[in-house]
Amino acid sequence: xxxxxxxxxxxxxxxxxxxxxxxxxxxxxxxxxxxxxxxxxxxxxxxxxxxxxxxxxxxxxxxxxxxxxxxxxxxxxxxxxxxxxxxxxxxxxxxxxxxxxxxxxxxxxxxxxxxxxxxxxxxxxxxxxxxxxxxxxxxxxxxxxxxxxxxxxxxxxxxxxxxxxxxxxxxxxxxxxxxxxxxxxxxxxxxxxxxxxxxxxxxxxxxxxxxxxxxxxxxxxxxxxxxxxxxxxxx
Length: 235
Ligand code: CA
Prior knowledge:
The protein is of the alpha/beta class. The chain has helices spanning 13-25, 36-46, 62-69, 86-95, 107-126, 160-171, 179-187, 196-209, and strands spanning 5-9, 29-33, 50-54, 77-81, 99-102, 135-137, 140-143, 148-151, 154-156, 176-178, 219-222, 226-229.
């Protein structure tokens, strides 16, 4: 199998070098661009498997690049973002970025994000068993075909809405999903933009599945952005 290629679009040299070294060591082929326009060129000419994108580029806003790329490509994009920029992350995700990673970040976090996004895009392309093979993490097993959730061998009774939320997060496990994406997926395109109904449902879900709802093991809160379900252990 040929190496997976990662395009790093980032103008800060030290971050570019750090990520490049990590990725090469883990057998990725690394491509670089330090401007948005060069990034777009490389995406067209080299078709990378995944794109790491800094939003603050010298020649363009990263959001504009995401918007442009999404008109013709579904290549996963992971945004590299500043610590407190929740709103920026939400906008990027809703424009079609797949995930984000917050500066400063460590090697294992970077690799985990890349793995989750690649796995998800591969499945979307090739794997119709995505909704058939159960999700597993720790003591949790979610069997999509039977709509059955077990935690530590105990069957958990979810309402239909709670099930939809958990199933949607499990199908996207390892990736952050914005509040608005969950709302429109679960309640439909005319969903109220208010997150309150989602927070209430999530509190009930956590009471049912987590030992300690304040210290969740399965579904994590990404403050100001959305939720992330622990990565599926299969593969
Ligand atoms: Ca920058």
